Amino acid sequence: MPAKFYRDYSDFLSEHFGCKVQKLTVNAGFSCPNRDGTKGYGGCTYCNNQTFNPEYCAPSLSVSDQLRRGREFFARKYPDMSYLAYFQAYTNTHSDDIERLMGLYEEALSVEGVVGLIIGTRPDCMPQTLLDRLAALPAWVMIEYGAESACDVTLEKINRCHTWADTVDAVNRTHRAGIPCGLHLIMGLPGEDEECMLTTVGRVNELPVDTVKFHQLQLVRGTRMARDVEQGLYDIPRFTAEEYADLCVKMLARLRPDIAVERFVSQSPSDLLIYPRWGLKNYQFTNMLNNRLRELHEFK
Ligand code: SF4
């Protein structure tokens, strides 16, 4: 077994489950408060939600049908697998109707083989009443908040329509409710230099966070950011894969060691992705990073 230089997501999951678990993405047809005017209009400048839906998950199908399709997809290869329903697309707590939300989550938990939920949402979209109801569910639940950066200037620039203080509040309340929580962070946002990104990691360390997902900023077709960059209004920080791996090494050196890292890169569909086009699959980048960490460790 190769040495590990950071806590990874499989370590985190094996602490909670005595079996192999696989996330199944669900699109429950939610909207986003940053598009429908509840928080803002137009969405985050980098966002094109077409980038995060696997084929088996179509919002025209019920939550349970999507999960059954996902389970069939994996069960051929891994018959003993258990599953986590991952409410990923858009903002999966964006409804004033808490009974409707709970109905969707409970529907997911009723599907054979589903042993827990992961709910992706915004940090300004988690009312305490919903947290209390989630904490009372007889199943494992985790919340994943899109924090993106700890820098409010950046958050404003990318039209997130929430602040770092919202993230601090949501994470603290989630932790107090006894629910594990993860943060999603984007590296390479416009105007951010290395020190700024490392400062975000430092501020994450101050919070009771269980996991993080890092990913490189991707410039995607159809987004406001792609238009702005094309028109020369500003540019985004640009990294080669090797330079980004070096940044990841520095982030890991700063990250609290008990926080598990779920990913370092993300991969938008090739026909939508403008930049970066490194030509590496996620696992290939992670292997490259792990090799880099191993070399640094050996030459210390
Ligand atoms: S990134 Fe999330 S919050 Fe921002 S526009 Fe897209 S779905 Fe909405």
Report on the structure:
This protein has 300 residues and is α/β, with parallel strands linked by helices. The chain has one domain (9-298): Aldolase class I (TIM Barrel, Alpha-Beta Barrel), CATH 3.20.20. The protein contains ten helices and nine strands. It has helices at 9-16, 63-75, 98-109, 128-135, 152-157, 164-176, 194-205, 224-230, 241-254, 282-298; strands at 21-26, 82-87, 114-121, 140-148, 181-187, 211-216, 219-220, 260-263, 273-275. It has a seven-stranded parallel beta sheet. Strand 3, helix 4 (128-135) and strand 4 form a beta-alpha-beta unit. The protein starts with 8 loop residues before the first helix and ends with a helix. The relative contact order is 0.13. Residues 32, 34-35, 43-44, 47, 49, 90-91, 122, 146 line the site of iron/sulfur cluster. Iron/sulfur cluster (SF4) binds next to loops.
